[in-house]
Amino acid sequence: MSKETTLNVHLNKDVKERAAKVARGMGLDLNTVVNLFLVEMSNTNQLPFTPTGYSKFPGIWSDNPQEIAHFNQHIGLTDDGSDFGNETAD
Fold this sequence. Notes:
It contains three helices and no strands. The protein has 90 residues and is mainly alpha-helical. It has two domains: 1-49; 51-90, no CATH class. The protein is elongated and about 45 Å long.
């Protein structure tokens, strides 16, 4: 027996329309696309693609502690990156 839940996503209207057009071209709807994305992410424990073209987070994907510290300083955090990989959830 399948348990279902609802996910509300807020996004740019133009992005939604363009994505829906691409999905329709593949014979899919956005609900199916989002489900496919989440299943793949949960099965592989990672994003099903490599983020590109989003310059807000340059360099942090390299796992370089100095780059992480620089990024954190840039966004106003005091984390120096020295605990990278050893973080704990509060």
